[in-house]
Write a sequence for this structure.
């Protein structure tokens, strides 16, 4: 007998069939037992007159033969009238009730018991949104004739300098884990002009914050023959629009389940130059931090609130960050070389994307490294790309977990991550 | 003036336009200079009467204004008559001539100078084939309602036991790099039933062979409610068929460029049980290795040749490998528990895929670990999944670089990898 999945039930009304899955919830009354059966896609109500099913532990795996019928009171208006229940795997029931719409558990419990609690539909929805985000990210770039790449994770030298890098014992000598595919995506611009990667990056982040992880999924883009960082910002807006459109169109039920409000993408994302942003943040927060060459989390939040109030936009570009706070490969502003052709995109008051134009001439790299007092040797193969001819180029990186965190309104990035890794956590 | 890319030239014949790219080759005669201009997608012949272009070094980046015209003798029948050439970046020319159809360089040179030599159309074709393979792998599984996942790369314990695992300094304590997403893809079968991942895996492979790397891209699949490993083998054949179909349909020019012969997928892939395979290999090679619980590379080659000769198939399933050579989570053959419900897929005489049915009952895991004399503690969170109810399941992993190596007939996996990592190589 053919197995029918929850996603297909409406096409099989009236049929005698088999459904399989986990016992998500059980309640009995008046000699009748109602089971919520969960499979990989959804849930269905099962009704049985055999009371022995009521004693099967929650999360046990079962095979149920029965007839799918209309039932006005059942969720989705369909229920399975069970005629034969077979227990495939007996479970120890989880410590937390899975049957409610939301999981009533604190952060430590949710993380410690993620192996089981991530089976909950609301947790699962977050992961499906992440899958949809990756898929739409790639599709929007494929349409623009980008090539997907996979770059090495073992590297000889730290990308952004020595901080926050993990060291590996590489056959008896030290190697590092790539903090980003930055160097390789730039090198590969020399091959394909337009490249993207969806891959894990590694940051030895020594701070315990709600927005940092020690490994996360980076959605990286790099493109050639740009005019400036403006070309990159346009591409970013195009990609984000596609991602938001896809979530809205294909993941409405997941968004609903986690109570997410999908952002509207404005026709043009409002923008502030760093110098304007600093002055504005001063007036908004009352705290003068104009001497700091970066935006603090508090400044980002206040600027985000300002953009929403003034422009009705949940997105805000801040451009022109001081060169002193950007990595050595950053292209300066042609007319004000203290500032850079770079940007951050704030989304709901949090930095979601960093990007910009890069240097593309070999001599400029030698100058930049020399000025920074950094030895050139460890960058030899990276610099080879520029020695052998590179066009003006730039790119950006979106943090996948931050995107999901902000879209769904999670208060901690760990809640937007299937199995988060941080300073203290290596399991599950 | 709008920039036109090589991929679009046929739609712009007769137009005055701009093309950008790298100087791939130059030759002059009779006062006319012919330039092969390469951009991220292809090449176009440029003809110029201004001889100064002949002195621009190869690989320099240029912007060329001109008119696209039909030219019977030019490749593709089109050439760009240049009226204005602007040099964007002057290059140091590469040590190896890029203008030939194939690169005449040995393996060490190809690897040492990969930053530049991978710009060559024949090298680029390999990477485009890899991108096409990843994309069609995902598309074929999306159609089958799989969910894409991203699993942690930092793990607390080595997946397959202690061998070949890289150790990381994780904030002052040891962590390991995941040798595969095995444990997490199984755990996530408990969430989605059907999952896949495209991601980097790490193997501290102490042998210097033509088919091993220390990091590679693994195309991982895991699925629930299977009958046995046979269900998994059917899914694998479906996925591989889709990948081959996609390469044939959308990557004909790349396959041609690298001289690849795409394999035909037979209606049913021939199969041998391990015991049959051992006996047959003895008769084929004359060397009796039936006491060895695995197939040697020589046996794999001879069996591959046998399948081609006898069945006209470049693919061969070998099933039922001895339990002693398979990891502890392997499901035994129900009737002959010395052997397993597992398989390897040989492609052109090389193991391309490993897969099988896994144990799914908690008690079976405890038995298997105990019998193997392995402490249970480090597997606690993995085992939680089975304690809390798991269905029969199984899966497989395809090595992306091996697939590209075997499809394109490379003699060394390093040649099928953009920037390979091995015992001795961490750069470029």
């Amino acid at each position: 007998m053919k197995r029918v999945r929850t996603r297909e039930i409406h096409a099989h009304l009236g049929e005698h069939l088999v459904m399989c899955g986990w016992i998500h919830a059980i309640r009995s009354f008046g000699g009748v037992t109602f089971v919520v059966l969960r499979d990989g896609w959804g849930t269905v109500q099962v009704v049985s007159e055999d009371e022995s099913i009521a004693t099967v532990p929650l999360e046990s795996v079962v095979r149920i033969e029965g007839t799918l019928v209309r039932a006005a009171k059942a969720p989705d208006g369909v229920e399975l009238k069970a005629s034969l229940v077979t227990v495939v795997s007996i479970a120890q029931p989880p410590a937390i009730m899975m049957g409610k719409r939301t999981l009533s558990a604190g952060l430590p419990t949710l993380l410690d018991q993620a192996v089981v609690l991530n089976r909950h539909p609301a947790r699962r929805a977050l992961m499906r949104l992440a899958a949809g985000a990756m898929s739409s990210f790639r599709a929007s770039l494929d349409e623009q004739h980008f090539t997907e790449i996979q770059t090495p994770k073992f590297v000889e030298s730290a990308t952004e300098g020595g901080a926050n890098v993990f060291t590996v014992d590489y056959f008896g000598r030290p190697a590092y884990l790539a903090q980003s595919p930055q160097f390789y995506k730039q090198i590969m611009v020399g091959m394909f002009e337009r490249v993207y990667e969806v891959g894990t990056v590694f940051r030895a982040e020594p701070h315990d914050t709600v927005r940092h992880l020690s490994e996360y999924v980076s959605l990286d883009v790099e493109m050639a023959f740009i005019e400036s960082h403006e070309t990159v910002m346009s591409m970013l807006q195009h990609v984000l629009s596609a991602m938001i459109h896809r979530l809205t169109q294909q993941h409405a039920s997941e968004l609903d389940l986690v109570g997410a409000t999908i952002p509207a993408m404005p026709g043009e994302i409002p923008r502030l130059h760093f110098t304007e942003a600093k002055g504005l943040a001063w007036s908004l927060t009352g705290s003068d931090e104009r001497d700091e060459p970066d935006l603090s989390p508090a400044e980002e939040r206040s600027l985000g609130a300002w953009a929403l109030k003034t422009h009705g936009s949940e997105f805000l570009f801040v451009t022109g960050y001081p060169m002193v706070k950007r990595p050595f490969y950053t292209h300066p502003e042609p007319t004000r070389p203290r500032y850079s052709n770079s940007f951050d995109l704030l989304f709901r008051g949090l930095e979601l994307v960093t990007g910009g134009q890069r240097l593309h001439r070999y001599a400029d790299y030698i100058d930049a490294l020399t000025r920074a007092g950094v030895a050139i040797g460890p960058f030899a193969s990276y610099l080879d790309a520029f020695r052998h001819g590179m066009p003006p180029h730039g790119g950006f990186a979106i943090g996948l977990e931050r995107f999901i965190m902000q879209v769904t309104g999670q208060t901690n990035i760990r809640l937007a991550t299937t199995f988060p890794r941080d300073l203290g956590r290596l399991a599950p």
Summary: The mean pLDDT of chain B is 95. The first strand of chain B starts at residue 16 and ends at 29.
